[in-house]
Write a structure and sequence with these properties.
Blueprint lengths: L2 H30 L4 H10 L4 H12 L3 H10 L4 H22 L5 E4 L2 E4 L4
Antiparallel strand pairs: 1-2
Helix pairs in contact: 1-2, 1-3, 2-3, 3-4
Length: 120
Amino acid sequence: MNMSTHFQEAARDEDRLRLREQLVAEARHWKQRRASMEDIIVMLHDKGLSLAESVWVLQQVFGESLAKLKEVVTAHPVWAELVSCTEPLHDELENLERAIDGQGNGQVVDGGGARAAESG
């Protein structure tokens, strides 16, 4: 990676951080005005935050667990398309985790079949 690319990525990261911080303040203001969490989820989505960033902002505002907020955000209709597209990957990762933890049968489901989990 050249120096210019490094600085561009750092600048983008700083911009995203500033955006998230601004949206934490805005979401807190919405909460004070009695907006629902669902309304805030839509606002964060419309402002361009990712699903993960939205969960993080909500955690800052509502103080709930990340796991609970992930469930709430992924269940919201504004994220339905992304969630449905990533569900097969999520399922495969969960299968892999079970296989690695020894809770599974050593098989990782891969769409139309299974393959033996790689041993380390």
